[in-house]
Specification:
Blueprint: H1 2-62, H2 67-78, H3 82-99, H4 103-127, H5 142-145, H6 155-171, H7 176-180, H8 182-192, H9 198-221
């Protein structure tokens, strides 16, 4: 009698274990399917945004102006590239040390620029968006061929917004309108030469504004604002 009871109890326990395992497997399968569907939906949204961005960028990238108008686009596209940013820093260094005799000016600008540069490189590495293909002949075609990093965000647009916000925050409201022109000029030039799409530039400008304002708050917190 005892043997039969033991066998019956073991059989019942095995059935209970099997019955308990089924819901767990089903729930795992449902969660996995939900994750796959979510990733697929997100991938479709990103693809749609990418296609839309390319579509709205195409008219300016295909535009063919005369030589003199393209010079304006060239200035806009190159004003905040890495080489010019280095030139600005060197100029500000000598200006702050030898003319104003206030090294804090250079330190403040350097902090803004370096943080913007690091964030740009990190996000570009993470996103890995490829740059547009230059299909239209330009007088200054090397503007596009010299680009080596990924496309999003636009580092030039970020730094244009960075410098624009520095002028507004540290030098006052009298220069607000003039400095704000840096942002659209840089964006237009970068899209025109197929260095970026519009979303690259908008995101870059947005990050530049956030970074500059964040640095401004940080600098004021530590009482380094001696412009």
């Amino acid at each position: 009698m005892m043997t039969t009871t033991d066998n019956d109890s073991s059989t019942i326990s095995l059935e209970v274990v099997k019955q308990e395992q089924v819901p767990i497997e089903e729930n795992f399968r449902k969660v996995l399917n939900t994750q796959i569907e979510t990733k697929s939906c997100l991938s479709n949204i990103i693809t749609d945004l990418d296609n839309f961005d390319k579509k709205i960028s195409q008219p300016l990238q295909a535009y063919t102006p005369n030589f003199y108008i393209e010079i304006l686009f060239l200035i806009s596209a190159k004003s905040f590239n890495t080489l010019n940013i280095i030139f600005y820093l060197v100029f500000i260094f000598f200006y702050s040390i030898f003319i104003k005799k206030n090294p804090y000016i250079f330190i403040i600008v350097f902090i803004h620029v370096i943080i913007g540069l690091l964030i740009t490189l990190i996000i570009k590495k993470i996103i890995g968006r490829e740059r547009p293909i230059l299909t239209v002949k330009r007088y200054f075609y090397k503007v596009r061929t010299q680009e080596l990093t990924n496309s999003m965000p636009s580092g030039d647009s970020l730094q244009s917004a960075n410098f624009s916000m520095m002028i507004i925050l540290y030098l006052g409201n009298n220069s607000r309108f003039f400095s704000l022109l840096f942002i659209p000029m840089s964006m237009i030039g970068r899209v025109f030469y197929s260095c970026h799409y519009w979303f690259d530039c908008f995101i870059g400008a947005f990050l530049g504004i956030i970074i500059s304002y964040g640095c401004y708050l940080l600098i004021n917190k530590f009482n380094l604002n001696n412009f």
